[in-house]
Each structure stands twice: as C-alpha cells, then as structure tokens.
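Reopening this one. Same input as before:
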Amino acid sequence: MPLLANACSDSVRANTGHSLPFTIASTRDIDMYLGEVRDQEGGSNDLAELVFKFGSYLGELLVRHADARWVEPPAQLSGWPGVELPGGTFADPIGKAFKRVDNGLEENVVSFIDVAMELARSTPKRRWFRR
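Same output, byte for byte:
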C-alpha cells in the first residue's frame, strides 16, 4: 500500500505541480481532489484506480502519523486492506475515499483522519497495572 500512496503523490505532482508531503495538513488537498473527481465524473466508477490511490494515501498518513499498520479487513467486512489503529480499531481509508467521491461532502476525509488521529492518541501504548 505504501507504493500506491507514493504513486498517488507522484500523480498529483505530475498533474498539478503540487506535492503531497504526507502531512496531516495534506488531507485537505486530498479532500479537494476527491471533490473534483466527484464534480467532473459524478462518481468513482470511471476513476476507481485513482480513488483507490487516494485512499491508500490516507491510510499511509495514519501509518506514518498514528502508529497504525496496514491489515486485511476483519472477516465480517470483506474488501480491500485497511489500517489498524493502536488499540485494534479498524479504519477503512480506501472505502472512505470512495464514499467521498460517491456521496459528496458529508463523507469528508478531513474529519475521517481527525477522528482516526484522536482514536490513536487516546489509546494508551502501554498499560501499567498495580498488583
């Protein structure tokens, strides 16, 4: 998935001249680009590969900034890989990218990343117990 995330960044640079530096702030750019895909295409069907790359970029942000890791989806969820946040919460950044394109602004990816980051911060890395 990191390769797809890098391919996303490269595609954006090649087509817009702007770079995606794998910062949390770049989530706003991703949301804008996904909105443009929605406005121009009306949905994700024609540009599914591009939307998948944007979702991979979102997931890689969580890997790099929230100590998440790429995992296969839980058995009851089938589909593409997602990320597991510290504490075991499964997040689906690729699915979120598709929802943003198909459903519009109510599926804002900035909020998705903000909530995932908050979940990652609120999960203790290590628990200490007294005996």
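So the earlier flakiness isn't reproducible anymore. For the record, The chain has a mean pLDDT of 90.
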